[in-house]
Design goal:
The chain is mostly beta strands and 281 residues long. It is 7% helix and 21% strand.
Length: 281
């Protein structure tokens, strides 16, 4: 017997257990018929401070993580029918918090693992939510950022010319070839993924066997104290396009993965965007 065979490894010591990001409960009913240009937030619930003095009643929640931590996310390719896959783009957003946010977490009795990290040196009152009512709409400064890509121009050919780096927001999308199943020793089509999509999604050959790898891992360093992810349909045919999660509709695949599958079952609690955080590299 090898020396490692008797050791129970419950999780990687270098990375957290998966946090599962999903939209807020009943998101399909809220978004049904809304313009598709309006993104769906993960987690999308309200921040615990929302509505408190100094905070907007509509402040969206993020998930806490240390600035500079290594982050690994698994994004699922949403599936309803293999023959009519609708892809989505995902945008990672960041927010900074202050020591006052940490203190409020302690006062709430939250466990140490859930307390906010902070990088702002202090809590400061900023621009009010309504300039006509500055006292009742006082707002603390909470800056947010989008994950970005830097594009460096070619070296200038003229002396004494500065180089330019263009910063653009980064969008992620799942865009992989659909898998072909390996055979088992009995000659049956093998399964690699299970319990997320049906073993057969339709009558046609193109709709069979969604048991392959359908998640796309991506890793980066945490660039804020809180992270949230915004999802949109990859292509919008017209500005008037709307979210539609009903049976046979364009966004049924999104509902199938993150929600109720067009109202046919409760959401799957362990299916969503998986988020792992680890030590800085």
């Amino acid at each position: 017997m090898s020396g490692d065979s008797s050791i129970a490894v419950l999780s990687d010591a270098n990375f957290s257990l998966a946090r599962i990001l999903k939209p807020f409960p009943n998101f399909e009913a809220i978004y049904q018929g809304q313009l598709q240009s309006i993104p769906i937030a993960f987690p999308g619930t309200l921040d615990e401070d929302a509505g408190s003095p100094g905070f907007s009643p509509d402040l969206i929640a993020g998930i806490s993580m240390p600035l500079g931590a290594r982050v690994v996310i698994w994004i699922p390719q949403t599936i309803f029918l293999y023959s009519s896959l609708q892809r989505y783009t995902y945008q990672v957003c960041w927010r900074l918090r202050s020591p006052a946010d940490y203190s409020r977490d302690v006062e709430r009795g939250r466990s140490l693992g859930k307390q906010s990290t902070y990088s702002l040196p202090q809590q400061e009152v900023g621009v009010p939510g309504d300039l006509a009512n500055p006292v009742t709409t006082k707002r603390f400064v909470l800056p947010a950022a989008m994950q970005s890509l830097a594009y460096e121009q070619a070296e200038p050919l003229t002396n004494l010319t500065n180089g330019l780096v263009n910063m653009r927001g980064q969008l992620l999308t799942t865009n992989g070839a659909l898998w072909t199943a390996p055979l088992t020793e009995t000659g049956a089509l093998g399964q690699i993924t299970q319990g997320i999509f049906p073993d057969s999604l339709g009558a046609g050959a193109a709709d069979q066997g969604p048991g392959g790898p359908v998640f796309f891992p991506f890793q980066f360093d945490a660039e804020g104290n809180e992270m949230m992810i915004l999802a949109r349909r990859e292509t919008i045919a017209a500005p008037t396009d709307v979210w539609d999660f009903m049976s046979g509709a364009e966004d049924r695949s999104f509902s199938n993965t993150y929600g109720t599958n067009a109202g046919t079952r409760p959401p799957l609690e362990t299916v969503g965007i998986y988020v792992f955080t680890g030590a800085a590299p």
